[in-house]
Design a protein that fits this description.
alpha+beta, 3-stranded antiparallel beta sheet, 1 helix
Length: 159
């Protein structure tokens, strides 16, 4: 009986440990540095906390088309047109704000813990960021941003 309890305890500990490691897993960039895995919009697949790593002295541009500026990317009023894959030339949208290297960013996520991301006309991923000027998009590429390890329950940064 004691051996059975020990085996069950070890199994539970292993499962909980595995679950914790999965919950703490950070998005991984592909060979081009793009965080394309986040385009899947799977429930529970989200990364809220990011940090700017762009070395450009002018900062990292955050862009939003004029026609989408009054909407919240995660709101019910967000038009389907915004999420049309490979439609927008986001790199040509006006710059709403810029972020400096080392600045922390908060990505906009959906109500079902979905990552919100759009693919531009070249298939490149763009991540929506929450700012005091509304939502805007930054390139979801490891040359510009990196995910920050976060608590899977509170979503507070752990670093």
């Amino acid at each position: 009986m004691k051996a059975e309890i020990t085996i069950v305890s070890l199994a539970v500990a292993w499962i909980l440990g595995l679950g914790a490691n999965l919950a703490l897993a950070l998005p991984v960039a592909n060979g081009q540095g793009d965080y394309t895995g986040l385009l899947a919009r799977q429930r529970g697949n989200r990364q809220v906390n990011w940090v700017v790593v762009d070395s450009d002295s002018q900062g990292l541009n955050c862009r939003m088309a004029q026609r989408f500026r009054s909407i919240s990317v995660d709101g019910v009023d967000a038009p389907d047109e915004l999420f049309a894959k490979n439609k927008h030339n986001v790199s040509q949208w006006p710059v709403v704000t810029t972020f400096r290297r080392g600045e922390r960013l908060e990505a906009v996520t959906g109500n079902n813990a979905n990552q919100i991301m759009i693919a531009d006309s070249n298939g490149k991923p763009w991540l929506p960021i929450s700012t005091d000027k509304g939502n805007c998009f930054v390139r979801a590429n490891s040359r510009f941003v990196k995910p920050v390890r976060e608590n899977p329950t509170t979503l507070k940064p752990l670093e």
